[in-house]
Design a protein that fits this description.
heterodimer; A: about 150 residues; alpha+beta; Immunoglobulin-like; 1 helix; about 40% strand; B: 4-stranded antiparallel sheet; 8 strands; about 5% helix
Amino acid sequence: MIRRLNDIDRIFGTMDFFKNQMNRFLEDFESGRGNLSQGGVWPPTNFYDDGDHILVYSELPGVNEEEINIKLHNNMLTIKGERRENTPEGYAILRQERNVASFSRSFTLPVEIDPEKTSASLKNGILAVKLVKVQTAKPKKIVVQAA
Amino acid sequence: MSTEREMTKPAQDAPEVLKPGKINTPDVDIFVNDDEILLVADLPGVAKEDMSINLENNTLTIEAAYSASFTGTCQRREFDAKDYRRVFTLPKGINVEKTAAEFSNGVLYLHLPKSSAVKPYQIKVKSL
């Protein structure tokens, strides 16, 4: 009987293992990280909307500001650039996970943007692009009047 | 002597701990030459002050608090503002006192010098 309990325990242990592996895989998938993103979608980019602006944030660690090229054309935002050769001279590689050299991503923006007022900044490896919506695209408050 | 070999062991028996869940695992590159092991880690969204690197009993722990903040409502999310943590077991023969770290543009460069005992020593051949 005790042996059988041990067997059951072991089966559950194995199931737990697979469950954890699956969770990890799904997490990687949802966050756009992990093996699926290798050489694929980079940099990971978040979009925020605060009413008047669209804020675009990209994770660009190890990229200098002069190596980033941002273009806005017909409501299409393109972030392009290069991460410098990162294998230091005279070293052998033991592990390489950060292997993105050049990157390019394009996004179609949902609203019209004033290209003159666009600004971008880079801090601690995060690029922030601030896009100002044109007046007609901003949300309007409608006041309800008592009849 | 076997520094390189110890670090290139396949992932199954490597003592590195990856913690899934509420924590980001930074991507790392590890390089080695005769003098040191160089660990390069991507830590976007982290300020220099919010990073802690601990070396204890051959266990290297890199932890960093996420400090970048975002305004507005999120419309599309591909990365999370989560803290970073990753643990490595270092091979023997690291000169702990001489360890140096640099941080720029969200990338950490950690220099782990080898102690002289594990550095390769060139024997010169003299002609008679």
